[in-house]
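Troubleshooting: if your tokenizer reports a length mismatch, compare your output against this known-good record of 233 residues.
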Amino acid sequence: MILASAQIKIKRGDINANLEKHYEMVARAAKKGADLLVFPELSLSGYEREKAKDLAFTEHDSRLNKLRRLSIEHDMVIIVGAPLVIKDKMYIGSFILKPDNSISHYTKQFLHTGEEVYFDSSFDYNPIIDIKGERISLAICADINNPKHPENASKARTTIYLASIFFEPEDMQKAYRQLSAYANQYSMHVLMSNFTGPCWDLEGGGKSAFWDDQGKIISTLGATDEDILLIVK
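Known-good structure output:
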């Protein structure tokens, strides 16, 4: 199985430009034969709170149609992030686009301080991705700060834990410690995707990475790389 993490620079609030960036990264991953590609938190909009309502996606938003076609064409699960409206509630969400043309949603469970003003949280949208004998669970950013999240993933027999985050450079050491510890404690592989470059008037810390199921870091990107991290598992 080939896993890929996209580390990208985005244009704040520019959905169309960010979609083009996603298409580019999908093409790169497809050339390497990736079975799954994951993007950072809110990758389509950039990390936004105040403007989230204006940038929000619906459950089967037509703006995802090309990514859905690319998922089918390349036989690749593609996971992208955006503000997501479900039943009149706004979530920080991930869209899981599958080669069978199905779409499912993960919503952030543990919000960062301040996010609760703009977003709801929910445990109701928490699908497991079954692919090539692996059970894959998702996390979004502050989810990884709550030990209950990886614990619950382990109880669901997760073998690969995907973390889509927006962490600043000074937070990356903590993120590495946490994800390494979770991988070791629960014997699951961990793949993380982060932004690089400006985002929400802050700076993405990059350093997207993969840990094996003993917590050993196997591969990482640099802080400023805009690239695909590819893992053959």
